[in-house]
Structures are given as C-alpha cells and as structure tokens.
Design brief:
The complex is a heterotrimer of chains A (258), B (264) and C (607). Chain A has 258 residues and is mainly alpha-helical. Chain A contains nine helices and two strands; from the N terminus they run αααααββαααα. In chain A, strand 1 and strand 2 form a beta hairpin. The chains are: A mainly alpha (258), B mainly alpha (264), C mainly alpha (607).
Chain lengths: 258, 264, 607
C-alpha cells in the first residue's frame, strides 16, 4: 500500500481524483458552509479544469528523468508483462467500451435546448435613436446630474421605478419582483457588482431599448425587458438611473478625461 | 531522422488542431452587419423598397386599413381599370407626379380623400420619420410603377440620421398629459365628435361617460374589436385603428379614459 | 505621289495623335473615374476577405520575424563583443543568414498584400492612399535602405570582425534595426488609423481634407508600436528556439547537440523574458481602445469577442507552462540543481491554479439544468474568478513564478563566495513575498471598490512585480560575482521532450499572434475605417471564432511551412560553424578539426 502511495503513477491518479472531487463537490458544497453562495459547476468548466490539472500532473512527472521513468513503468509492465495478460485483455475491452459509451452520450439526441452564450454586457452602439431623435451615447453623461435639484430627480426616479420597474426588479431592487420567477434569465438586481461597472449612458441605452434592442450576442429573444422609450421620457429614464445608483450606493463608471 | 521529423510534424499539427478545435467548440457568435438602412448615403431603390415593404406590413401599421377590408383603398391589388397603385398614382391629381402625390397623401391625408371613403387616415409624419415616409412612397411606387424616389429626396427632407427602417413601433409623438391635446394628437376627433369639434363618423364623445363605463372605454381604445360596436355604427366596425395601445403611454391612456368617462 | 499622300496623311494622323491623344486619354480616364469605380473585387474560392486575410497575416508573421531577429542578433553580437564569447557572435551570424532569405519572403508577401488590396478593395485602398500617400513613399524608400544595410551587415560579417571594425559592424546592426522599426511604425499608422481615425472625421469627410499628422499619430498608434516591438522580440526568440530544437533533434554529434541545446536555451530565455512585459503593453493598448471608443472597447472585452479571451487565456497558459517546463527539465543538466527541484511542485501548483483562474469564463456555457442551478450564466462562486481583479492577480502571480523559475535555474550551479550571500537571499525572498502580497492584496481589495479605482489597482500590481524583478536581478548580479561553480552545465544532455516543448511554444506564439490580430481588426466589425468608411462588401460580417480560428490555422501553417523551408535552405548554404567547448588542458585548443564539421575548436572559460 505504502509502495503505491509513493509511486508517481498512483500519486497522479490520486491527485486527479482529489481535484475532481474538489471541482465537482468542493466548489458546490464547501462555500455554503461558510455562508457563501455557490452552485454546481457546469460540465464544460469541469472539463476545462480537469484538463488543466491533467496537463499540470503530466508536466510534473516528466520534468525529472527518474520520475518520468518510474511513472511510465506500470504502463509498460501492463503492456508487456506476461502475467498481466488478463488485466491487459480487460483494459483492451474496457477502454474502447468506455470511449464508446462516452461517444454515445455525446451524440445521443436530447430534448434539452442547446447551451447558448449570452453576453450580459454587450457593446452599446455609439448612437441610438430615441423616439426618432438621435442620441450619441459615446461620452454621454447624465444631464440631470448637472442641472436642477438632485433630490427632485431622485423623487421622479423613485416614482418612475415604483410605477414601472418594481414588478420585475423588486421592491428592494434585488431582482426579486413578483414576476421574477417567470423569467429566464431573471431580472437584473442592482447591487454594487453590476451597475457600478457601467457608465450611465449604458444604463440609459438598456432602459430605453430593452431586451428587443439588444444586439445578437445579447440574445434579445431571451430578455423580457420592454423598450421603455415607448413609455418613459428621456428625463424619466435619467432620473431612474440616478435613483438606481443612489439605492445601490455606488457611483456610475465615469469616462476618463481626454 | 524520418521518425523525428514526423514526431515534430505531429506535435506542430496537433497543437494547431487543438487550438482550432478549442475555438470551434465554444458557441459561435458572429458579429452581423446591423440591418439599419444608411439613408444618408447612396441608398439604392431596392433598399428603399425593401425598407418600405417592411414598414408597410409592420411598424407603419398601413395594412390595418390599406390591404384588407373596405374602409380604405386597397393598395396591394389592382383597382379596376386604373391598375395597381404604382400605375394609378400619377393620374390621381392633375399636375402631380406619382411621387409627389403619394408623399402628400401620407403627410396630408385629408387633402386627397378618394371618393367613397371617409377621411380617417392619420398624418403619417407624426409617427414616422421623414425618411421612413419616403421608403413607403418608394414601396408603393414599386407596386406596378417605376421607383423614382432617390437619396436626393431624403437629403432634401433633412432625413434624421438615426431614423432607419428599424424603428418598428410607433413611438408616442409626445408626452403631454393634457386630455384635449391627446385627443388632438391621436386624431380621435377625426372620427369622433366632442362638443362642436370633430367629425360625426364614429359614436360621439360628448356623452360617452353616460353610456359607457371606464372599463369599456379602456377596452375599446386598446382593442376596438373586443367590444360590441355601438348601436347604429355596426357598419363601421373595424374602422377604428388598433394602434393606440402602442401609440399611447399607460399614463396617457388613463388620462384619455378618465377624461372620456367624465363626458356625461 | 501616292507615297507622299500617304506620308502626309500619316503625318497628320501622327500630329493629331500627338496633340489630341493626351486630352483624349484624360477625357477617357475622367469618364472611367466617374463611371466605373469598382468598390470590391472577388477572389475565387476563399473570397476577397479571405485572400487579404491570409496575405496580411502571413506578411505580418514574416515581418515580425525579420524585425525580431535583428534585435536578437545585435543583442547576441554585443554579448559576443563585450563578453568575448564567440558563441554568441556565431549565433548572431547564423540567424542573420536566415534573415536574408526571410527578408525577401517578407517583401513578396507584402507585395501580395498590396496587390490584393488594390485589386480586391480598390475603393478602400484609394481612401487609404489619398491620406497616407507621402508616408507610403517614405515606406518604400526605407525598405530600400533596410535591404542594403542588411546586405552590408551580413556579407561584411567576416570582413569587419576585429577591433574597431567590429564595433562599426555592430553599428550597422543597430542601423538595420532603426530602419526596420521605422518601417514598422509607418505601417502601424495605417492600420491603427483604420481603428482610430481622428475623432472629428465623419463618413462625409473628404480624405484630402484630413490632416496627415492627425491621421498618422492617431490614438492607438503608439500603444500598437510598443506592443508590436515587444512581441517581435518574443517571436524572434521563439523562432530561434524552435530552430535550435529542430537542429538539436536531428544532431549527429554531441558537440552539435551541445551548441543547439544552448541556442534553444538562449532563444527561450529571450522569448519568455520579453513575454513577461507583454501583458502590460497589451493593457495599455486595450485601455487606449476603450478610451477612444467605448463601443469598440466593450465589443473587445465583453461583446461578441469576449470568448476570444478565454481562448487567449488557454494559449497564454500553455506558454507559461511550456516555458517553465523547459526550464525545469533543463535543471536536469545542471549540477547543483537538485537543491531546487523540490520547489518545482509548488511553482507548478501556483501556475496551474493561475491558468485555471485566468481561463475561468465569466459567462459559462451550461445547459438548461445547470443554468437553473446557477440562477443564470454567472456562477455564484466561480463568477468571482471571471472578473478583472482575479485575472490580474493570477497573471501577475504567474509572471512572478516564472521569474522565480529563471532565478533558480540561473543560480543552480553557483556557490556564492561573498559574505552576505545568505542575507542577500533573504532579501530576495522578502522582495518576492512583498510583491506577491501586494498583488494579492489589491486583487482582493479590487472587489470592494468601483471599476475606475479597480483599473488603477492593476498598475500597482504591475509595479510591485516589476520592482521585485528588478530588485532581485540587481541583487543577483552582485551575488553571482566571484561565485564558484558547482560543476559545468552539461549542454546537450537534454531529453527530447523538452525540445518538443519549444515547438509547442513557437506554434502557440504564432497562433496567438494570429488570434490577437483577428481581435484587433475584428473589433472594427463592419467598418473599414471605424465609423468613417463602411464595409459594404459581402464579407462585412465579422466571422465567429470557429471560422476565424480555421483561417488563423491556415495562415500559421503557411508561415511554418515557409519558415521550415527557409531553415532548410539556410542549412544548404553553409554548414553552421560550431564552437566546440574544450577543457583548458585539452591539447586540441586552438586547432582546427575537420572531423567536427570543419568547425573551429575554441577554448572558452567556464562562466
């Protein structure tokens, strides 16, 4: 037993299994113990991680001449030694069979929709048409931040939000409105992580043009967000944006000075 | 020697194939050329016609009247001896060529009402951009006639740069909350009478609050076919446009509904 | 009489032709200009875009090679001159020989590119030419100077090999580099103009009205220059290493093996060394692109190109792993390296975790059930690894680890004799620990601040890493003074698999250049010149990553086949002269030994 534990071949196998357990079970179930949200890792990412670990292991065992020879030894013994005849035959059947089974599951027709890639923050156009009027988004800032009374804009924004947005995005702006469970993807929450990365012009574009106005990589057919330019005025959208940033307690990403 | 060369070759090819496979294994997103029509540039007749056709059947809402039923001239089929709209448009008004006539009909519809029809058509320049109107003219010309609309027409009418054919929904023209202004804007008074204003085509607004409740009025405005036509107006069923739901904001709709319900 | 009449008639005709024809041709030309401006040509099978793509990419790969290798050559020549180590001089010459052949290949592909552009994209080429005509003439002129300096440099090698003449020869090498860099700067201005034309330009701006300098020194010109110069060094080093690996694997004698083993080591050292600073230049370029136009920036990082960065992360991961692996395997031939081999596994763990973090996608590919479990395409826990803070931290730690590998490799066979060796090592260790701590601190702190502040953090991380690298190197130079050797490096005793790592390196570098080239020009999307000249050809849509990768692979294959041919050709011209290292007491010192490929036997002090 100890002999096996010291052998690089079996060590590698153990490391591989341990890594697999960490990736599949560890990431999914350990953080929740500490109160951090987590979820099972998608198959594509598991594959990617395991491939990286496997490459790392192979690099390690082959980086030293002696270790590499030792590592290859069980493989050679298995392939050549006469007293391993039955193991060899079993493997010769088992490995192709395994590949066959994997291939079967790969090509088997399923009813699941193919995974699609949805870009959460697709590139905005430089210019949009807002109710027929062109608005240049590039370097655009919220005009209401420089004019009028900010508290008044906040009040308008709050009213607009609670009249229009609350059903999906929720009372607490956490994306848990009454309709939220009906949608996939779920409505966005306005925490620090999302809108703080964005310029206000981006937020304006998303509110004005909604899901249908998303470019292709944003998978417009997936988003239920209406195009609010048909309902809200320009100033109302800007006010909502002020309200959102105020509630999230962050300031929008700014344009760097020229 | 050969074995080494083959090994090197397989390492090199293997690496390249791996990267190619990797890039091919992820979901493929192609950056498409946006379908927006660049109307300021040298736009071709075909592009104008295609955009106009899309608008005619879609966001422009033309099909609601012109194409089915009898409430407005059918522009998609030949009209007796005068032929398709592209053929007959030049003969409709003395001194006006096809292009001018169609354009004028779109932005001043009540000037040239075809005999036998009611003046119910709204001014299209309120919901469409100038360049969109020209795409419609081009499309109509193409039905049996020759397209004469060109980029000069668009430039002359100071096309707005972003007003492509993509503007699908008719955005509300304004944000006013004044009931009378809303009735005026949405052309309600073209068919309905309120006091001494408006035309007596549909049921009058004057005492509508006494006859109908709030819910009925709201349903009627949003989806005219959902409720029974008023007595004596059955012949006009289906005449009322179905576009108010997209034309009005929710708040505007409520203003109109409440205003009408108060007309007793 | 008849004769006269004919004569007079033909004279009149001749006069008429002479006087009228110029006007006639003018009229004809003018008519043609009005009537038949063809915007795009077509190319069989692969289309105009495919043809230009291949021509541009292969030209660019050759150009990077002929710009990178001279930098490498003058560096090696300088070491040869100042350290009196003739191995380096021969190395430089061996590569300049390949350069002469590769140079004409570069010019041929450049011509192919220009002809493809003029025939397939005439309208676009006309636009570019009307703005950049003057710089295009200069470009051609510089080419002329560059070629002749190269010929002088190569053919004068043996003539000016001693004393002051040698320094003059080295000066020629520097001049060659200046011409080459100037040529590149001019060409860079054309392509960076396509990305970032002067902001005041609109589609209606007549090209003649554009100020030349505002188009030339545009927003992304300088970042691209810096990025490309460094990348050329990396590429040159990688190609040198692959050439050496090829020769090593096919070597017949131990001397040959020793020489090419050493050459591969030098090439790899330069490639990985320059690679370490490349990400910083890349950040600068990306930042300027973002600054110039937000849409372009988001298209690049978050839009339809976002997955390209996952592929790029995999490739860079391969580079780091392969580069380190080569060093670790190489420790097997250094006496005294056994002291350090136990650390390899820890460095490997850092690198593997770094690659994993760097290649973790922010938006994950998942099927419906997995999406439901995650509550979206962002993993609630791993999503934290998908953002900039985590990636910056990972790459900085990987750079630091790679540098540590180098340091251990360098120190493996030395036994310092100075008194403060121990405390020096401790200070070096502290520098490493501090850099790692700073990188980790800002990496974690980055999650708690706004984006604009977070971007600033990457600068601190980079500075910490660079400070540690510079400090450690300076200390190390002093510590190595008068150090005893633990035994000579056994050049040539290298397992074959290490050489295959060098091939993987060069293929990865080449492919990466193709990929990044696609990213850079792909973010223009359907514009020839961003928001100035629209691409209205049938190939305006930017392809998805899969088809693009196939094009890149085709370009890489063409380049590698041609460069392999050039290497083979270089071998035909003359057998490489080897310097066989002998012990000082060897009786053969100073002799010429025809048995060893006619090479010169030379004694070199162990360094």
């Amino acid at each position: 037993m100890k002999r096996y534990l010291r052998h690089p071949f079996w060590q590698s196998g153990l490391v591989l299994i341990a890594a697999y357990l960490v990736v599949t079970l560890g990431i999914a179930y350990l953080p929740p113990i500490l109160g951090i949200a987590s979820a099972p890792v998608p198959g594509s990412v598991v594959l990617q991680y395991m491939a990286t670990v496997l490459v790392g292991i192979l690099l390690y065992v082959s980086s030293d001449e002696d270790r590499w020879r030792e590592f290859k030894e069980p493989v050679e013994v298995m392939l050549t030694s006469p007293d391993k005849r039955y193991v060899r035959s079993a493997l010769l059947v088992a490995i192709p069979a395994l590949i066959g089974v994997l291939t079967f599951f790969q090509v088997r027709p399923t009813v699941a929709a193919p995974p699609n890639l949805r870009s959460i923050h697709p590139a905005p156009p430089s210019q949009i048409s807002f109710r027929g009027q062109p608005i240049v988004l590039d370097r655009l800032e919220n005009p209401l931040r420089h004019e009028g009374d900010l508290n008044e804009h906040l009040a308008v924004g709050r009213r607009t939000y609670y009249q229009n947005c609350v059903a999906c995005h929720g009372d607490a702006l956490d994306g848990n409105g009454h309709f939220a469970d009906a949608f996939s993807p779920r409505p966005l929450e306005f925490g620090t992580s999302t809108i703080a990365q964005l310029t206000e012009s981006f937020v304006f574009w998303r509110i004005a043009k909604g899901g249908v106005g998303l470019p292709r990589e944003g998978a417009p057919w997936n988003s239920a967000m209406p195009a609010w330019e048909d309902v809200l005025t320009e100033d109302e959208i800007w006010s909502v944006s002020i309200f959102l940033y105020d509630q999230a307690g962050v300031s929008p990403r700014t344009w760097e000075a020229e | 020697m050969l074995a080494t060369n083959l090994k090197i070759l397989s390492v090199v090819l293997g690496t390249i194939l791996f990267y190619t496979y990797l890039a091919g294994s992820i979901p493929q997103v192609e950056s498409e050329v946006p379908a927006e029509l660049d109307l300021s540039a040298n736009v071709t007749a075909e592009e104008l016609v295609a955009a106009g056709e899309e608008l005619y059947a879609g966001g422009g809402g033309c099909l609601a009247c012109h194409g089915t039923g009898t409430r407005a001239p059918n522009l998609l089929e030949p009209d007796g001896a005068t032929g398709l709209i592209g053929e007959r448009c030049g003969q409709r008004v003395e001194g006006m060529v096809c292009k001018e006539y169609l354009h004028a009909s779109l932005i001043r519809p009540t000037d040239f009402v075809v005999p036998g029809f009611d003046p119910i058509m709204p001014d299209m320049s309120r919901t469409l951009s100038e360049s969109q109107v020209w795409t419609l003219v081009a499309y109509l010309e193409s039905l049996g006639g020759e397209v004469t609309v060109s980029s000069e027409d668009l430039a002359a009418s100071a096309a707005d740069p972003a007003g492509g054919a993509t503007a699908g929904s008719a955005a509300p023209a304004s944000t006013t909350m004044e009931p009378m202004a809303l009735l005026e804007e949405n052309q309600c008074l073209v068919c309905h009478q309120l006091g001494d204003q408006g035309a007596p085509i549909g049921p009058p607004f004057t005492d509508v609050g006494a006859r109908r409740d709030v819910d009925f009025i709201r349903s009627k405005v949003l989806d005219p076919a959902s409720v029974q036509p008023a007595e004596g107006y059955e012949a006009l069923a289906g005449t009322m446009p179905t576009t108010f739901g997209t034309q009005l904001s929710a708040a505007q709709l409520e203003v109109i509904v409440q205003f009408l319900a108060e007309q007793r | 009489m008849t004769f006269r009449r004919i004569g007079r008639g033909s004279l009149r005709l001749l006069l008429a032709t002479l006087f009228v024809a110029p006007f006639l041709t003018d009229v004809l030309l003018a008519q043609e200009a009005v009537g038949a401006v063809r915007e795009y040509g077509d190319f069989p099978v692969i289309g105009a875009r495919g043809a230009v793509w291949i021509a541009a990419q292969v030209h660019l790969l050759f150009a990077a090679f002929v710009l990178g290798v001279p930098m490498f050559a003058i560096g090696a020549e300088a070491i040869g001159i100042f350290k009196k180590d003739t191995r380096y001089d021969r190395l430089a010459k061996e590569f300049t020989r390949l350069l002469v052949i590769a140079y004409s290949a570069t010019a041929i592909w450049g011509a192919v590119l220009v002809f493809f552009l003029t025939t397939l994209y005439p309208a676009f080429w006309g636009h570019l030419a009307s703005i950049f005509e003057v710089s295009m003439w200069f470009y051609v002129g510089l080419f002329f100077f560059e070629s002749f300096t190269l010929y002088l440099y190569y053919y004068g090698w043996d003539r000016w090999k001693l004393g002051r003449a040698k320094l003059g020869h080295w000066g020629l090498g520097i001049l060659l580099n200046i011409w080459g860099t100037a040529v590149m700067l001019i060409a860079n201005s054309w392509l960076s103009y396509m990305m970032s034309p002067p902001a005041e330009m609109t589609p209606d701006t007549a090209p003649e009205m554009v100020q030349f300098w505002s188009a030339f020194a545009n927003a992304t010109w300088m970042p691209i220059n810096i990025h490309r110069i460094i990348a050329n060094v990396v590429f040159g080093g990688a190609i040198v290493a692959a050439y050496a690996a090829y020769r090593f694997l096919l070597a017949k004698s131990d001397e040959e093996r020793a020489h090419y083993d050493w050459m591969g080591y030098v090439g790899n050292l330069i490639a990985i060394g320059a690679l370490i600073v490349l990400p910083f230049a890349g950040y600068y370029l990306g930042r300027e692109i973002y600054e110039y136009n937000q849409q372009m920036g988001i298209t690049m990082m978050g839009g339809f190109m976002s997955w390209l960065w996952i592929i790029q992360a995999v490739l860079i991961g391969v580079l780091f792993l392969a580069g380190n692996y080569y060093l670790w395997v190489g420790m097997g031939r250094i006496p005294g390296a056994e002291r350090f081999t136990p650390y390899i596994k820890y460095m490997l763990v850092v690198l593997v975790i770094g690659v994993i973090v760097w290649a973790t996608p922010h938006t994950m590919i998942a099927d419906r059930d997995e999406l439901a479990a995650m509550g979206g395409t962002h993993h609630p826990f791993l999503g934290a690894l998908g953002v900039m803070s985590a990636k910056n931290t990972a790459v900085n730690l990987m750079i630091l680890t790679t540098f540590l590998s180098f340091l251990l490799y360098r120190r493996a066979n030395l036994r310092p004799t100075i008194a403060w060796a121990r405390s020096g090592t401790i200070v070096q260790g502290l520098l490493f620990a501090m850099a790692a701590a700073v990188v980790l601190f800002f990496g974690i702190y980055g999650y708690f601040v706004t984006a604009i502040v977070r971007i600033g953090f990457s600068v601190y991380q980079v500075l910490a890493v660079l400070t540690a690298i510079v400090g450690v190197v300076v200390l190390d130079v002093f510590m190595a003074r008068g150090a005893e050797s633990r035994g000579e490096i056994r050049w040539g005793q290298m397992p074959a698999r290490s050489q295959y790592a060098l091939f993987v390196l060069v293929v990865t570098f080449t492919w990466l250049m193709g990929l990044m080239g696609f990213a850079r020009s792909g973010i223009r999307q359907h514009w020839h010149v961003w928001e100035v000249m629209r691409d209205t050809s049938p190939w305006a849509a930017t392809p998805a990553l899969g088809p693009a990768a196939q094009m890149i692979s085709v370009c890489v294959l063409i380049f590698l086949v041609l460069i392999a041919f050039i290497f083979w050709l270089g071998g035909l011209i003359e057998k490489p002269q080897l310097v066989v290292r002998l012990r000082p007491d060897d009786p053969r010192v100073g002799e010429r030994d025809p048995a060893v490929h006619g090479s010169e036997l030379d004694f070199l002090p162990a360094d």
